[in-house]
Amino acid sequence: MLTLTGALRILVDGSTERDGVLAVGADGRIASTPVPDAETLDVSDCVVTPGLVNAHHHLLQTGFRTLPGTRGAAMRDWLPAMAAAYAAAGIDASLTAATAAAGVAESLLSGVTTVADHQLNWPAPAASADPVADTVEIARAVAGAASRLGARLVFVRGSARDDPGMAAASADAIVRDLLPDGHEGGISDDGMLQLAVGPAGVHSDPEATFRALGEVAARHGLRRRTQANEQVDTEIALERYGRRPLDLLEEWGWLAPDVTIAHLCDVTDAEIGRLAAAGVSATHAPGCDVPMGWGIAPVARLLAEGVAVGLGTSGGGSNDAGHLLADARLAMQISALVGPQLPARTVLGMATAGGATGLGRADLGHLGIGARGDLCVWDVSGVADAGVADPVAGLLWASPGRRPRHVVVGGRVVVRDYRLVAADERDLATALRERIAG
Which residues of 19-39 are buried (b: 16+ CB within 10 A; e: fewer)? Predict the structure, then answer.
């Protein structure tokens, strides 16, 4: 139970704002009135927003940032450079536990309360006595790291050139292990863990993988996620199949309301219309695509056609940071290069409700009555916000790299006065350095 008092502004959702008091009840959801005996947080001079939803991350890459040969590289060169680094470190549960802990901690400290982790890389099957069991251990490690820190996790059993049958067997085993009671929509009862599936893209995985993972999703009621239409994805699809990525995804049954597609930089107006008609949602990842030179998604056109758009950082191998609000600022600033400039509130909506929509989570991304009590408290009293006329828009326009003062997940304070409650971030950083080195 928690009551926030004195807020300068409360951003309930993309169209509703108010000031004053916000309450979270004993069930961890937004309440209509303050709850007796609840902890009280004085949030004077602060803006309160819904917790941010990072709709597309690769937590493994947190351990592999700024690697030589990976900055500004063509994707054809970037992929093998990253693969070599993973192989040298050895992908196992100890590695993913360390990378996930650091990546989730970074997320919470920058206001992200829900992280969608697209785990694409796995141990080589030939090196394992039980490859499926190893993948389950990796999923457990990532989920455990998020749970200990208090973040919501969407774990996406991804594939990058995996054997289709192996990928499907692994996905099925992960669902049965992490959600043994067969929860509806692949979501735990408390909403803290959600499972999904997703091949890396048509540049990496064949039709058989898309269909095999699609069958697992249908069996367990999971969301489906993939990546498409970065420039290299289009090039490879044309070379290999003589067709564009979305043509293939439609044929393979992956243009549907339960599908979210990340990137979508190289899309035509006709393709945007097809996405909208199919009910597909999108994830914009400018912090990856812009510095790598992989394109800019035409977000305004997607939104205008009715496509729900979330925001994601993608991984540390291309972005180097997991700071979603910084990427929201970038998304706002670059939008005028491919269309009309996006207003700050629109982009904040992408970073909250837009990402939640792509996850099928009406309980996240807003602070309406009954929503999960996930929120961020942003202190706007300092010199970085001095002279700002609109404190909500100022969250993006002013103070690049700002951190929230407090972060709350399900009514539980997980970041208090800019520090993690459940861990010391320096210890997590040390553990990751030692694991990579060792």
Answer: eeebbbbeebbbbeebeeebe
